[in-house]
Amino acid sequence: MRGFGAAQVIITMLLVNFNLRKIAAFMSDQYKEDAKRNLAGDPVEKKLRRRDRDFYNRYTDTLPPGVERPDHLKKRGAAPEDTGGPPTRE
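Now predict its structure.
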């Protein structure tokens, strides 16, 4: 394809494609927003995940909110003196 006519057809197809993608993205955002609301129109509160609500996370050394650290879980880096490790500073 050559010439101004062919360039005009290709530019028109690119613009139509761009506009259709923008419309689809807008509608998708609207559907997602509507899905986040309950039937009364109020925003739905995001539920806390069960793993964060019920379990101790060994990787981040965190507990669920409002849960006190049990005795059998030691704070990371707080080794007892009888382990043979380096002395801890006070």
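The first helix runs from residue 3 to 35.
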